[in-house]
Structures are given as structure tokens and as C-alpha cells.
Amino acid sequence: MSSMRPLKSAMSIVNVDDTSLAMPSTSTLHRSGEQRVVEQVHTIKRTTSRRTSSRTSGSTSLSPTSPVQIISFADALFSTWGAPNGKGNSSITSSEGKGTDPPITIGAKPGVSVGPPINPPDAGSHGSEINPEDPGSNGNSKGPEMTMKEAVEFLSKDDETYRHWGASYIQHNTFIDEEAKEEVSKLNGVSPLVSLLRSPSAKVNQTASAALRNLSFKSNTNKMEIHRCGGIADAVALLRETDSVETQQQLTGLLWNLSSVDSLKPDLVHALPVLMERVILPHTTGSALTSSSKDPEVFLHTTECLRNVSSKHASNRNAMRKYRGLVDSLVSYVQGCVEAGNPDDKPVENCVCILHNLTFQLEEEVPALFNRFKALIKTDNKSKNNGLGPIACFDLRGKSSELELAKKRSFDYPEVEDPHPQGAGWLIHSTTLQTYLSLLGSSQIEETQEASCGAMQNLTTHEGIVSSVMSQMIVNKLDGLKVLCPLLNSNKVTLQKNSVALVGNLCRNPNLHHIMVRNALPELLGILSAGTKEGNESDDTLAIACQTANCLLMKEPDSAKHLINNNLINALTNLSQNEYFPKSKKSAAVLLYNLWSERDLQSFLKKQGMSKASFVNDVTTAAYKSVQIID
User: Fold this and answer.
1) What is the pLDDT of residues 87-112, one digit of tens each?
2) Are 403 and 500 part of one and the same domain?
């Protein structure tokens, strides 16, 4: 029986041409409220020692929080009025989030997450002894009776004591009662609160900052009103001036909340100079440019904010890529944590997600960054014209020439890599790629791993010289398959999906096929052999595993024969008939058809007692024809 004509070319069944942005993890969302509260107790114990209070001065010493939620958008809530237990050293946090299921081959798209609220110390530490009827007298420890209307009216009083009291009342009530946020909005209380950010009283603008942070928690209406009243500009101005750690925590928490609204992100980009000077540089480089403290809460909130800002709009990403020192600082911080054996630090996750987002559509948005890569084509074109070599025996114009170049040479890394990267140059440098691989191997935080994988996906996703160079850096220079191949069997569904997609991207480079057949193909076929029997319910993962295995098996059939067995063929057959997995159904059918169409493999399959009907039938023939490209 003559072998059938092998498949010449086929269109991709699963889209692998897009790049990705970070999305929130949903792991926190599935925990019960009780479980989340238990987790917060540990945070409370760690932060209790940092709190101070002063009854005589009435200063607001606000309890910090450690947000438990995640990636690309966030809200944080804070209250200073009165703790339910009356003790003042408790902090209860909560979180929620939502996101969209990510397209398989690109990693992840942005979603929404919110940070935690903060329960206050007792009212006695924050002005509850001030009686609104007599600001100079002491009231009872339970605090005065007041309505929200009166609290809003207090905000416009000339006496700073009244202003502080009104802001504290609003802060507390918007913490314990969601409806209080709407009430403040209806009473037009947002504008006078924003104006208090300009108060000469440190305790007033600190409390106003925390009240605005509460008001903006899970309320887009209040976020937009804060912005309309100039709240972003005033918050940034106060952040530039204040040396109070508590005020910095509330202001950066407020900016974090506001950053969840896409339309506000461009204005938050304008906060970069202050965020860099007052937070990022002191925390990541030890800069002595300012007297800012290196408070971990302030840094955490800032990285959460920038993580949100980086997830939307090319103009935002370009502004961040170009801002002097930002990318350098983020990379330096992550590398420092990895070297110190602290890969699970929460800001590490945020920084890696920012870097992931900044690689999104990088080749299209910053083409000049790849001039060294493009120079390879020009060099080979010159060699062709001078008759100096056989490499450029084709038209060196357009993407087809890039593909041919990728097939014909391995790259000299010093030739394409800047020895002294700066700014966005770090996004494509092998040192940063090595950091991603280190995090994949050492971090226990799934979001950090996914972002590391996603960044490399973004850099290898398109056909052409850029993807070819980045792929060879990952595989040949950094020996990345040692890290990536074990992840193909990860029990974390999204991480496995992203790892399979990244390996699929790497497979586009013909120079890597031999090493991938030895290292990645056994793992890919293992995934396919397991099929849907071991809880793998990702249609996308199975589809890409089929496509990548198809490519490698057709390129080096002799090297892969020993990996083909009855268990694999039976699993592929079952998958090709599974209507619940439409993408992998088609991919498995095409793979079966191609296995029989390859002459050497067909002979091997016959010797194993397998029949043509298992490989060529109505299902596989229809799938094969559907993906053929007519020349």
C-alpha cells in the first residue's frame, strides 16, 4: 500500500499569534470568608507592633494591611473610626475578584481584583474623645452620635478639629457599611474630602486620604467623582510632600483603587515621577534622593497600582517602558529577591506581572528595540550582494526572508544582545529571561509563574527573526527546557496550559527541533496519552500539545518512533471523537492522519499491528482537509 501524501502546510487551529497581559488569580476567590479571615489574623500579628496612637494629639495612626488579592486591578479599603472588638489592634481583610478565561496560547488577559479593607484601632486613638458639640471637650469613649449629613458638613468647617472628626466618621462608616459610600456621594461629600488633601494639618489630610480610599473601594462611581474633583493630582501632590508612612500607605492605597478604572489609567501614568522618586527608587535601589521610608506596604500598593496601569492601552505601556529607571528598578528588585531566595515575595509577583504586561505587543509597539535583530537580515543581505556566503540565497524582504534566515543559521548572542541594557532593553535581555526561568523553577506562587511564562510567550509568539532569536536564547543559551519540560505536567491547569503554549512557540524555530524531540516531545505525548482521563479538562492545552507533537513527529520521525504506542494511539482516537473538546478533537484527528501519511512511520505502525482505519477514516480525513492550505 502506498503511503499518502504528507501534509504540506496547515493553518493553526488554535490562535498562537497574540501576546498576553496579566490577569487576576481566582485562587483566593474560592476560599470561604472564614478561611480568609484566619489568613488575615497572621497579617494582623505581623503588623500590630508597627501601630502607634496618641490620645493627646489626636493623630491618626492607621493600621496597615497586606492585600491578599492579586494581579491586574485592585481596591483597598481602610477604616479608622472604631473597631468592633473595641481593642484597636485587629485588622480584618477581605478580597474579591473577577476575570475572563484566558485564550490558551497567549497566557492571560486582564481581569479585576480588589484588595482588602482595614479595620481600625479603637475610636479612642482617633478622636472619639472629641465632642462635636464642644470640640475642645472630652466625649464618651464610644464616640459622639452623628449623622452622615453632619459629618459631611463638618468637612467644610473652618476648625480643623471638626474636619478631622467628619473625615474619621466617614472613613469608619464606609468601612462597615457599603451603603454609606452611596450616602456620602449623594451628600456631595467627595469634593470636600478631596480638598482636605490640601489641608495644612497632617492628621486631617491623612484621615481624608484613608476616607477616600474607603469610598473608592468597589465603587466606580466614587472613583470617577474623586478623579473629577482633582483627587489624583491632589493625592500625588500630597505623596510628594508627606513623610508620614501612614499617609503614604493611604495615598498609595487610594491610587491602587483608582487604577482599576481603565479611563483613569492615563492620568495615573502622570504619577510616575512621584511614585518613582518617593517609592520605587528608594525601595529597589536604596536611593538616598529623598527621605522616604522604605515601607513594604507603600511599595506593595505602588506595584499593585502600576500593575493595573500597565494592563491597558499601548500609550500607558510605552510611557512606562520609556520612563527612566522604571524597568531597570523592577528587574533589579526581582533579581535581588531571586538571589536572596525570596521568590514568593508579593511585590515580586506584581513586578513580574508589570514586566509581563510591558512585553505585550512589544515588537509592534517598540520596533526600534529590535534593531540589532533586524540587522541580522541586513548583514546577510550584504553577504549575498558581495557573494560572500550561501545564507542569503533568497529575497531578504518581508517575513518570508526572516523565516528563511531563522532556518539557516544559529545566532551569535553578543551580536544581537546589548551588553549594557537600559530601560526597555531589559525586557528582551537574556538576564531577564534567566530570571523568569529561575522563578518558574523556584516560586510557589502560581501567578508569578504564569507571568514569567507569559512574558516569554509574548517574546516568542510571532513568526520571524525576533521570535527565533528569543527562542534560541531560551533553549540554547539558557537551557530553558530543563525548567519548562517538567511544567508540561504541572497540576496547575493554567500554568500547564501556558507552558505547553510556550513550548509550542519555541517549536516554530527549526533549529530547536532536534533538542525538543529529545526533551519536550516525550512530555507532550504523555499529556496526550493521558487525554481527559486524569482531570485535564483544557481543550486548549490538548490542542496545542497535538499541534506541537505533530510538528516534531513530522520533522524527526525516526527519533520519535519509540515514543509511539497503542496507548497513545487509543487516546488520540478517543480525543478525535470527543465532541466536548472541539479544538483538540480536530488537532488529534490531523495528527492521526499525518502519522499514517509519513512513510517511515506508517511502516513502523504496521509492524506494531496497527491498521490504517485507526488513522485514516471519515473523521481524520475531514479534519485533514479542513486545515490544508491550497497553494
Assistant:
1) 222 222 222 222 222 222 222 222 22
2) yes
